[in-house]
Q: What sequence folds into this?
């Protein structure tokens, strides 16, 4: 299937909401996107929609995130969350295209790393490894292998050990 991937436009809001709800089987992730869109963490160029001739079929969101290091120092990174493909169109490579395009655009925008909490079987194929490699941790109680990071610039996470602080919006849904 031929798809194009471009940043979301104002008129995409409802299709982004519904395709995420369909993919996750609940509305929490859709609500999270709406909250993040209205927050300081939102980066309009990194809310990407995959489109086919029939409309929006997938979505991926990267938002600003901080790692709290020692003595009050913080390091900027990106959160990848959520990503979704319409259930009827999963396993066709659309998610992979969204992820590769998203990482490429994030690097072009000058971001140097991305953190994801997700399927440990999925993200490593794109280069994600456990964030514990760099001493980066989360307060969420998740398996080590599900909390992953990738450097978009070699060495970007070296010396950036700390605790990831998810924006409050993540706890509001
Ligand atoms: C995860 C998701 C975005 C992948 O999109 P996609 O277009 O199906 O991805 P691709 O076609 O590029 O890759 C498919 C591969 O992803 C992997 N995959 C898909 N869903 C997975 C899941 N829930 N757990 C682990 N791996 C998964 C499988 O290895 C699959 O390979 P297969 O087709 O050989 O079975 C999509 O399955 C989805 O929307 N799932 C529901 C929402 C979700 O879980 N989002 C991610 C939150 S971390």
A:
């Amino acid at each position: 299937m031929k798809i194009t991937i471009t940043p979301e436009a104002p008129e995409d809001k409802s299709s982004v909401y519904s395709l995420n709800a369909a993919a996750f089987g609940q509305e929490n992730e859709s609500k999270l996107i709406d909250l993040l869109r209205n927050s300081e963490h939102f980066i309009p160029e990194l809310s990407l929609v995959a489109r086919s001739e029939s409309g929006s079929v997938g979505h991926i969101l990267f938002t600003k995130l901080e790692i709290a290091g020692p003595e009050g120092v913080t390091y900027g990174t990106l959160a990848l969350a959520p990503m979704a493909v319409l259930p009827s169109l999963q396993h066709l490579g659309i998610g992979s295209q969204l992820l590769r395009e998203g990482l490429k655009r994030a690097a072009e925008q000058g971001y140097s790393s991305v953190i994801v909490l997700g399927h440990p079987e999925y993200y490593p194929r794109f280069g994600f490894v456990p964030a514990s490699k760099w001493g980066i941790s989360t307060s969420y109680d998740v398996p080590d292998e599900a909390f992953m990071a990738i450097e978009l610039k070699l060495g970007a996470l070296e010396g950036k050990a700390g605790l990831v602080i998810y924006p409050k919006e993540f706890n509001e849904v």
Observations:
- The pocket of coenzyme A is lined by residues 23-24, 82-85, 90-96, 118-119, 121-122 (CB under 6 Å).
